[in-house]
Amino acid sequence: MLANKPAGAPHIGPTEPEVRSYPVPPEAVQKSPNFSVYLPLRELCCSYLDPDKIPLIDKAFHLADRAHDGQKRASGEPYIIHPVAVAVIIAQMHLDTESIEAALLHDTVEDTFVTEEDIKRDFGDTVMELVNGVTKLDKLRFHDYREAQAENFRKMIMAMTRDIRVILIKLADRTHNMRTLGNLRPDKRKRIARETLDIFAPIANRLGISDIKVELEELGLAALYPMRYRVLKAAVTKARNNRKEVVNTILEAIKRRLQEVKIEARVLGREKRIYSIYKKMVNKELQFREIMDVYGFRIVVKDVDTCYRVLGQMHNLFKPRPGLFKDYIAIPKINGYQSLHTSLVGPHGVPVEVQIRTEFMDQMSARGVAAHWSYKEKGSEPTSTAAQKNAQRWIKNIIDLQQSASSSTEFIEGVKTDLFPDAIYVFTPEGKIYDLPAGATPVDFAYAVHSDIGQHCIGARVNHRMFPLSRQLSSGQTVEIITSPNAQPSAMWLSSAVTPKARSKIRQYLKSLRSQECVLIGRRLLQNSLKGVRLDQVPPERIDQILKEFKEPDLNALFADIALGNILTVIVAKRLQGDEQHDDEKGLPITGTGGLPFSFAQCCQPIPGDHIIAHITPGKGLVIHNYNCLNIRDQDKNPEKFLNVEWDQAVTANMDFQTGLRIELENRQGILSEISNAVDLAGSRIESINSEIKDENTYIIRLTVTVRDRLHLAAVMRRIKAVPNVQKIFRQR
Ligand code: MN
Predict the structure, then answer these.
(1) Which among 73, 63, 109, 86 has a CA at the least distance from the CA of 169?
(2) pLDDT digits over 435-447, tens only?
């Protein structure tokens, strides 16, 4: 992993003239008693970073060194050993300067006099955000949760971290802590080991960083089950010696064959990891001997084409075992892993497993997403956005490949949760996590923490700044609710709160209000919505008509219902002012809304040409449904909750609408990509995809597609129906 060390870089004292000159460490750094701890990291950085970046690393070390001065690790060594070791792991991945600075500083804000502002001032926003992100992850209290939720935590970490470098630093941090676990109390050691196996090794795996995944698994097993680990390790060492001869025979046979056909390749015997042996024994109930009796080899070649040629040669050299060939080049694993896998019958009938891949795939399998964050050649250090794009492209590539080649439910589900999270994760100032639906506001958060906090909240600080109670939160934010004992819920909150708990508590409170207060609030709300018109100037006939329409005995009852959020103020305002088309709705696809905010119902996803009706949902405005949608059967019972609306075809002609399709099909290789082609050919787009298994042969795929109108939708459906093995297609309602 280490590139050539530039001559002269690590010299202390007077410099000799050099070809590429790296700056001498500043005197303050050289004088540190921990200089010798830092030096190997510095050399490593000099081996791939530009010379002008090195002073930044020096500066970060210097601050961390001073900040942790006097602190000790559990082993009794100076604390600075830890951040430096973490930075070394980051530098071994060849990550950028900012990542190394952040790795050096990752424990300073939490444990020392250094503040966020210090880091921001001296190292910039990005480094500060990286340090913050790692600190936040540190505060997650995994051990409070049942093991069954481990998967949720992994997803949560992925979802709440916008900059993947935070996760890489956290993985490096965990790796070094695992290496030095021996100094901790046994119970603490076990807890950290379990958490590592449940949470962090799977994350490293998901990101394709097998170097770190393997190390975390081996260390985790050794700490969690020291006896089992020792027994297995001894058994593996013994078996290895017995196997040497067979391994060499097969290795030679493979090499000879490749030479004969003039294919250049690296051929390696693969050692089995103790953790993977352990897992196979537990999960597949295999005997130790059965596992060790399989001989594994890896062949690394220069290009994809050669991979398939080598495969042919191997199937010719040894008899392939039917059904055990896997083409992970055409269909990479979820984490981007690529290789050909095959299983053969070796000399004397021994099972032989061969992996065939290119050098590039080999690199990727070791470093995964980290490879895309690598520091590039001189002068082209990736800005964070460029690198972020790289990493995103990496993920997208995997998806494209997968989608065109297979319809594995597991894959589609996996990607869906990663890319379209519909939950957000936010923190209390103490680091406790709350998951809320997307769109949640500080009010929802306050009620989620405790009803009392909700009832008395008057404001919110998000990431230490004041934040409106009605604004939507996003993942990763730290939310602090400001309360006052005299504060009370406001009817206005109903227009932005989304969680059922918050909404019902607010409503409950409003109901308990003296009706007098309700009437006043309702009156004020309605007057505010009547732009320019005064309530007492509205003709009495008009008011009587409205009261009849909303089934209210008198005006005060109407005001009270407005205050309680039972009737939408703007609707009443619109009726009071007459039903003529509003100026506000010009240019909108729907007419008749009175300029109210509206959205399309997710249940029936109406498109132009459908007979539609608007349902008035307090807090959400209007929701446009299909007239026959089963979710709104009470039109006749509660007419005041509905508005008649129409499509404005002059506007919709240039718009796309989303609607759902349900396809039943007989699964086969490539069918998903043919469907996606059909959609494409019909001039439509797939917005989301979901699949489930109906029975042994039948899959159900749910697509959301974009169409202009009903005619267009019919054309799309015809195209899909024409794909072989598609059995039925329905519009989703
Ligand atoms: Mn740490």
Answers:
(1) 86
(2) 788 789 999 999 9
Q: Are the C-beta atoms of 632 and 624 separated by less than 8 Å?
A: no
Q: Which two tokens stand for residue 87?
A: 């930075």
The whole-angstrom separation of Cα 223 and Cα 239 is: 23
Residue 378's alpha-carbon distances to 149, 352, 374, in angstroms, are 44, 44, 12
Q: What is the pLDDT of residues 654-705, one digit of tens each?
A: 888 989 999 988 877 778 878 888 898 898 988 888 777 777 778 888 888 9
Q: Distance from the CA of 60 to the center of ligand 1, in angstroms?
A: 15
Find out whether 336 and 208 touch, Cβ atoms under 8 Å: yes
Ion ligand 1 residues within 5 Å by Cβ: 107, 173
What is the whole-number distance in angstroms between the Cα of residue 170 and the centre of ligand 1? 8
- Residue listed under structure tokens 């998806």: 399
Longest dimension (CA), the chain: 103
Averaged pLDDT for residues 593-616: 83
Report how far ligand 1's centroid is from the alpha carbon of 83 (Å).
6
Number of residues that make up the chain: 733
How do 621-626 and 598-600 pair as beta strands?
Answer: parallel
Output the pLDDT for position 358. 93
Q: Give 173 Cα–ligand 1 centroid separation in angstroms.
A: 5
* Per-residue pLDDT, 407: 34
- Measured CA to CA in angstroms, residue 477 lies from 249, 278, 455, 460 at distances of 59, 40, 22, 12
Phi and psi at residue 707, in whole multiples of 5°? -140, 165
Q: How far apart, in Å, are the Cα atoms of 595 and each of 37, 570, 571, 687?
A: 67, 9, 10, 28
Active site residue 110: yes
Distances (CA, A) of 251 to 27, 86, 270, 271: 54, 37, 11, 13
Distance from chain centroid for Cα 209 = 16
Q: Which two tokens stand for residue 387?
A: 């690198």
